[in-house]
Amino acid sequence: MKLKIGTSVTIDKDFTSEGEKYKSRIVDIEHDCIMIDYPTNMETGRTAFFLDGTQLLVSFVDDMKMAYVFRTEVLGRLNRGIPMLQLMYPGDSELIKIQRREFVRVDTPLDVAVNKDGKVFQLVAEDISAGGMAVNLAQAALEQDDIVEVTIVLPFKNNSITYVRVNARVIRIWEKDGRGIASLQFDQIDPESRQQVIRLCFERQLKKRNE
Prior knowledge:
The chain folds into two domains: 8-100, Pnp Oxidase, Chain A; 103-210, predicted glycosyltransferase like domains (Thrombin, subunit H). Helix content is 9%, strand content 53%. It has one helix and 14 strands, in the order E-E-E-E-E-E-E-E-E-E-E-E-E-E-H. The strands form two sheets. Strands 1-2-3-7-6-5 form a six-stranded antiparallel β-barrel. The model has no long low-confidence stretch (mean pLDDT 87).
């Protein structure tokens, strides 16, 4: 099993209109199910109480920095010294794995603030994945191998907005349709932020698939 006790997970209601996102961690594992702490809302910090049968989408990043996503449902509640939520685990074969070199990249415009040596450039992204992104340079004075701090605005389909801040390296400067483009590789991104980027990519993929 790819999951292990102590793994942090991010949860939402399978991209339904509510769109609230929650965080939790694995506290126990059985053959076909996992137990997690009661999830807390990532915006309000309030504890969530899901009804049995609630459909959820769970994502996590393992020790090898590989990201996984799987669908599950609430099986019930347990108390083994601490209150726990029991979720169905579909098995490793049902995990969607995205290795670093295979991160799904989606074409989507996003507002981005790039901080280089204290000077901030307001730019627009061409595309994004959990491993990096491409941004329109406009008048930004970026050069290959620059190390920058990037703040990315992630608008989710329920109109909620998450801000992710990462360190990145400029790996290439190139042109597209006469416009300067910088390809950025995320050097330092915490697992929760990476999960949020992955979540946005999945939302955009699902939207494109449904159109």
